[in-house]
Amino acid sequence: MSATEQKSRCPWCLGFPEYVSYHDTEWGVPVYDDRIHFEFLVLESAQAGLSWATILKKRAGYRRAFADFDYQVVAEFPESYVQELLQDPGIVRNVLKIRAAITNAQRFMEIQKEFGSFSDYIWGFVGGKPIQNSLRTMGEALATTPESDRLAKDLKKRGFKFLGSTTIYAHMQATGLVNDHLMDCFRYPQVKT
């Protein structure tokens, strides 16, 4: 039995090696870097109606197609590039999701101007520190919370697209605003603050 198999993990990540690696190194780790927040917003908005596994497998394609998630570059993507992206098999070829990423990059920078950083803005919705849940089973995990509802509503008011409460809660989990690792997962105490 390998070391990977011996560790107790959240069961959702056990499908393929990239999923395990994502769980073991990224998911739930508090993020304060705006570029990483933007990356997850692009990926999570692309996920709408699809599995996270599908998006994770296309992550390298997104990194290439979306200028390594440089929101300043993405905000200026011309329509001609949108048409190119619709031919790119390395990403989800949905025109509404592609255009949403561009719009969201523009709104993202507006939030930076108002709050100093997107990180400062988003962490304000959880009082500046991660929410520590104590989940024993996946059945106890929530799809939305009052915090994700408020954040999604505020983002929508600011003009963001494809970022409802469920998607935003996934963002909060991924970027460590909430610790939803199961308590018996080896990562739970590692990301607990």
UniProtKB/TrEMBL annotation:
InterPro entries, alphabetized: Adenine_glyco (IPR005019), DNA-3mA_glycosylase (IPR052891), DNA_glycosylase (IPR011257)
Residues reported to bind Zn(2+): C10, H23, H181, C185
GO molecular function, one term: metal ion binding
Keywords attached to this entry: Metal-binding, Zinc
Gene Ontology annotations of biological process type: base-excision repair
Annotated Pfam families: Adenine_glyco (PF03352)
Protein name (record): DNA-3-methyladenine glycosylase I
Highest classification ranks of the organism: Bacteria, Pseudomonadati, Bacteroidota, Cytophagia, Cytophagales
